[in-house]
Amino acid sequence: MSLEDTFYSPVWGGLLGLIILILDIIAIFEVLQSGRSMLSKLLWILLIFFFPIVGLIIYW
């Protein structure tokens, strides 16, 4: 098994997906607990939900 096959294995993809999911959930809870307006909270949550990686980068 080559290094490239090891790097692109489903385990790494699943682990990365799980990490992103956990960070998304944390960010959504932080948005909900913030003092922002309801519309602002909704927009942030939609951004994080539809664009998980980009939404996290922009939020933090």
Notes on the protein architecture:
The protein is an all-alpha fold. It has one domain. The protein is built from 4 helices and no strands. Helix 2 runs antiparallel to helix 3. It is elongated.
Summary, kept brief:
The protein is mainly alpha-helical. The chain is 83% helix and 0% strand. It is elongated and about 50 Å long.
Q: Biggest β-sheet: count, sense, barrel?
A: none
Overall shape: elongated
Average predicted local confidence, pLDDT: 87
Termini separation: 38 Å
Which structural class fits the helix and strand makeup?
A: mainly alpha
Radius of gyration: 15 Å
Low-confidence runs of at least 5 consecutive residues: none
Work out the helicity level.
over 70%
Organism: Cetraspora pellucida
Protein name: 881_t:CDS:1
Keywords: Cell membrane, Membrane, Transmembrane, Transmembrane helix
Transmembrane segments: 12-32, 39-59
Q: How are the SSEs placed, and which strands pair?
A:
Blueprint: H1 3-7, H2 10-33, H3 38-50, H4 52-59
Question: Keywords for this structure?
Answer:
0% strand; 60 residues; cell membrane; mainly alpha; elongated; 4 helices
